[in-house]
Structures are given as C-alpha cells and as structure tokens.
Amino acid sequence: MTTQLDIPKVDDFIKQLSEQELVYINRLIIDRLNILAQVKSSVKMSVFHNGQRVCFTPPDGLERKGHIVRLNKKTASITTDDGHQWKVAPGLLKRLE
Q1: Does the predicted TM-score (pTM) go above 0.85?
Q2: Cβ neighbours around 86 below 10 Å, total
Q3: DSSP strand E in the chain: where?
Q4: 53-95, which class in CATH?
Q5: What is the pLDDT of residues 67-83, one digit of tens each?
C-alpha cells in the first residue's frame, strides 16, 4: 500500500515540534534509513558466494581481480590475485566467469 504524502502538511507539522520531539523523529528517520541501506546491501550481497571470482576498481583506478573469502554484513572480504586483502562493498563488485 502506497500513501500519498502531503508535503505542506508535514512541513507545518515539523515547524510546530519542540527540539526534543525533533530529535526523537530524527532518530526514527536515521534508523529507518539505516535499515533501508542494510536491505539494499543484503540484496546486492545475495548474488555473491564464498570462493567466487570477482573484480573491483579501488580509488587508485587499477582494476583488481580475486576471490571472495568471506561475506561480511556490509562488505565482502576479497583476496586479490597478488595476495592482498580487501574489504569491498557489494555494489563495487563484478562477477567474473
């Protein structure tokens, strides 16, 4: 079920809140955003498995290839072909065949 948000009403409502109420709502919003980010990460992580061959491009711009040695909560631990260890977000990984 999708509800249509009346932005002007929400804006008026927020303007009437105390600092304590705003802090409480802020915490609720941050918690919700964190949950949504975890769900996205889990969905992206679900296509990978231990031992799978992958590649990624770190900030230095040089593509690295290696194998997944562990799937963590937010990252995959990768051992690259040159023996280095990396923790990489699943959104940055590409599967290799």
Answers
A1: no
A2: 15
A3: 53-56, 64-71, 76-80, 85-88, 94-95
A4: mainly beta
A5: 999 998 889 999 999 99
